[in-house]
């Protein structure tokens, strides 16, 4: 695993994936596994910044129509390979989450794991159909107290994730510091329905 850089320099995600970032992290996130059943069967779901597709492919395996958006070509290559190896299908889109290439109301579910561009929260909300389910988990600023330094611009304040999605009914929300597969994580987790 690459030693990750600190400070405010943007990460080179292609380089990270080439060097084995996410090796051994093929399982879907627990929050997704515990709440995926809320997304209507056969519905359309977007995974924003899907990485190598661990969560997108889990949803595809449940019969959902998944669109995975990701900026890194290396991650997309890995996602495509996993998809083929597992005999699954999904739409893979190379793009920038800052300009979401989706029409309003396109999805019955949107998932975001370990990615934060707070200014696109209204766009994420808009891509969901009314009644659609948002599943979102990412780091809190408190992560910097328990791990290597990350750019705080991409970390959440306590309570912030909830406040980014007004007009949603909260199904689950928690913030904590916990151990996940040997790593300490300070995260916020939100599951919410668009009203
Ligand atoms: C920490 S990884 C999380 C990947 C995946 N969601 C997961 O949890 O396994 C963050 C991902 O965001 C992607 N990314 C960073 N900036 C992006 C952008 N502007 N648009 C789309 N993807 C982006 C990176 O390439 C990387 O795959």
Kindly describe this structure.
The radius of gyration is 16 Å and the shape is globular. β6 (168-180) and β7 (183-194) form a beta hairpin. By secondary structure, it is α/β, with parallel strands linked by helices. The protein has helices at 13-18, 30-35, 54-61, 73-86, 121-127, 143-146, 160-163; strands at 44-48, 65-70, 91-94, 107-113, 128-139, 168-180, 183-194. It has a seven-stranded mixed sheet with strand order 3-2-1-4-5-7-6. It has a single domain, classed as Vaccinia Virus protein VP39 (Rossmann fold), CATH 3.40.50. The structure holds S-adenosylmethionine. The site of S-adenosylmethionine has 16 residues, from β2. Residues 13, 49-51, 54, 69-72, 75, 96-98, 113-115 line the site of S-adenosylmethionine (SAM).
CATH superfamily: Vaccinia Virus protein VP39
Order of helices and strands: HHEHEHEEHEHHEE
List bound small molecules: S-adenosylmethionine
Helix content: 25-40%
- What value does the average pLDDT take? 94
- Show unreliable segments: 1-6
Mind telling me which CATH architecture this is? 3-Layer(aba) Sandwich
């Amino acid at each position: 695993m690459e030693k990750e850089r600190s400070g405010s320099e943007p990460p080179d995600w292609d380089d990270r994936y080439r060097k084995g970032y996410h090796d051994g992290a093929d399982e879907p996130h627990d929050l997704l596994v515990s709440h995926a059943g809320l997304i209507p069967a056969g519905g359309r779901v977007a995974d924003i910044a899907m990485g190598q597709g661990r969560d997108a492919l889990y949803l595809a395996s449940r019969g959902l129509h998944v669109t995975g958006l990701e900026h890194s070509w290396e991650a997309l290559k890995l996602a495509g390979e996993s998809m083929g190896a597992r005999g699954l299908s999904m739409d893979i889109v190379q793009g920038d989450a800052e300009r979401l290439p989706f029409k309003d109301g396109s999805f019955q579910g949107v998932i975001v794991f370990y990615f934060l561009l707070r200014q696109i929260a209204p766009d994420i909300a808009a891509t969901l159909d009314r009644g659609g389910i948002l599943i979102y988990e990412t780091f809190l600023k408190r992560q910097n107290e328990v791990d290597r330094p990350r750019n705080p611009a991409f970390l959440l304040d306590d309570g912030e994730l909830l406040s980014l999605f007004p007009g949603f009914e909260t199904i689950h929300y928690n913030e904590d510091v916990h151990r996940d597969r040997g790593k300490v994580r300070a995260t916020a987790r939100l599951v919410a329905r668009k009203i």
